[in-house]
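PROTOCOL LOG
Step 1. Enter all chains and additional molecules of the complex.
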Amino acid sequence: MRNILLVFKKEVKSYFSSPVAYVVIAMFLIITGYLFYGLFAYFSTISFQAQIDPALARQARLLNITESVIRPLFGIISMIILIMTPLLTMRLFSEEKKTGTIELLLTYPITDLQVIVGKFFACMFVLLVMLVLSFIFPGLVIYFGEPEIGPIVSGYMGLILLGASFVSFGIFASSLTENQIIAATISFGVLFLFWMLGLSIPFVGPALGKFIDYISITHHLESFAKGVIDTEDIIYYTVFTLLFLFLTLRTLESHRWRG
Amino acid sequence: MIEVENLTKFYGNFQALKGISFTVEKGEILGFLGPNGAGKTTTMRILTCYFPATAGRARVAGFDVFEDAIEVRKRIGYLPENVPLYRDMTAEEYLRFVAGIKGVPSREITKRVERVMDDCGITHMRKKLIGELSKGYRQRVGLAQALVNDPEVLILDEPTIGLDPKQIIDIRRLIRDLAGRRTVILSTHILPEVSMTCQRVIIINDGRLVAMDTTKNLTARLQGNYRLIVKVEGPREAVIETLKKIKGIESVEPAGDGKNGGVTELVLNMDKRMDVRRDIPVAIVNNGWGLLEMKPIEMSLEDIFVKLVTKE
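Step 2. Run joint prediction.
Step 3. Record the structure below.
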């Protein structure tokens, strides 16, 4: 436990003593803010028009602030997290391998698992800082409107779980190579594919379609954004996270055997 | 303290270690010598549990490096060849981190870190980022991190590589001073380093152990015949002729270019069983020449090394 905490602290310090964390967090907030502004402005325009246009006023879904601002906002945040996490995770093992510091780290009395878990939580910490700061946007909605609180809470839960699986995969990609660009490309590429899996559902058979729908990352976030906390979704993200942390462990071990 | 039995390591099809066995006693400083690619680093990495051997056993302080890796690592201070340190941490931060991981109790971390910084002479650099330190200071930080948990065994892989002569002398003295009661293995391909710091030497070449002895014995053992260098003021040919006649001198080789104003420089190979050091000056003086210099040539570790490594 002490070792995990030491690695955690070291990595967090390293994120915040270099510009990495600040740049990533700033870009995340700028893009999210821009898209949030679009959503909110569109919603207010529609609301004004609905006052004079009875046809529009009957579209209840469009005029529900939770449906038309909060839910798409979670979609946007999850997309930007997808772009940003590979940039946070890429250095975790690649850099250590490139500079050789991994040799010292792995000859200290610390297990591989402790190293991985420490690094995982350090990256999760940065991600949490990002999510906490992003709360200004739903916060504004709460201040100016009356959204349902439930979906906001469950949406954030979903984002944390989603983020954990992204981070876990990113760490795995980072353990594969000593080149940070390759690590980032692999994690971004694969996560993006998982993201886009849903698009192929109309073209494959119903059985395969159902399967693809299940393994697709987005599918599981949707119910969280709706305010539904389903154990199935929680299990999906947890298994995804643990699987890639386990594979990272195996990769580190295999490097030992191969030398 | 360290027992290595028949250690073998394959990297794919390449055999880096071909069965190496040796032991190191407690408190000994062992020099690990060999040309580049001989298997020094591989042996050290096995001893520090960075990766396991393909076959064979190694024990450090009674613990098997494979089965009790964590126990072994607690007792070892390791300085890898390129001194890989986290460049974005300050020296002090880094040492505190290492002390924590190496299991120094929280209350003692500050004390231990102060102590090793003082020992390694980096106290005034504590607040600097490691990436900004010069090579010599980084080496010291590397040494400090190896020492921070007061380990029983120190394993140093080419600790003086890439340093300037003054830094080399400093680091060597540091190693000797800090060795104390610790067992030290030090790898190098710089030979004087071994004769200066180590009591015992192991020479490996191409994954095999070619020699293991004390520095003194090794020099003596390999000193086949006894050689003298003489400088004589006198005509070259005549001097050579005269010396050749002395019983006990097996051969005379000219040395130098012979163009320095009538001074002849010669290397004499002598029969070990006969001491003719008295006959030489007598013969020279009797001919009216002047004996300017006469000294034995000691075989340096370089010569021994080249001889052993190129034997086959």
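Step 4. Note key features.
Chain B has a mean pLDDT of 83.
The two ends of chain B are 33 Å apart (CA to CA).
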